[in-house]
Every structure is written in structure tokens, then in C-alpha cells.
Description:
This protein has about 80 residues and is of the alpha+beta class. The protein has helices spanning about 40-65, 75-85; strands spanning about 1-5, 10-15, 15-20, 25-30, 35-40.
Amino acid sequence: MLDRxxxxxxxLAFDGIFLRMTNEQxxxxxxxxxxxxxxxxxxxxxxxxxxxxxSAIRAxxxxxxxxxxxxxxxxxxxxxxxxxx
Length: 85
């Protein structure tokens, strides 16, 4: 069963990244409880890209907080190449 009237009126926010809302459609079970959402493929792609960006931001924040030794990029690449031989 499709609940075409169920639309979020405000944007979602993931750690400060705001995403626009569109007309999501919900699948509901026999008792009327939402069990799934149907998204436009473009909206789905937006959400996946936003999640990837958020993941990169979190990885950067974690790396900065770790206070690990900083080495030049070229040195890191050289060490990786040596380890692959």
C-alpha cells in the first residue's frame, strides 16, 4: 500500500549538511505502519553522495584528532610502493 500524502515539510540535516526534501512515498504494512520509503533515483543519488561526503568529513576529523605523525605525501606514496614489492 502506498501512502502518497506522507511528505516531510522540512529539510533533513546530517551534521550540518542540509538536504532538500522531495515527495517521498511510503509503503505501509497491513496495520498502516510505514515499512519502507520510495525515492526518486535522483534523490537517492543525492543522499548517497551526501553520506559519502559526511563520511569523508568524519574521517578527516578523526585523523586530525589522532595527532599522528605527519609525513609528506610523497614519502607516504614511496613507503606504500616499497611495501607492495
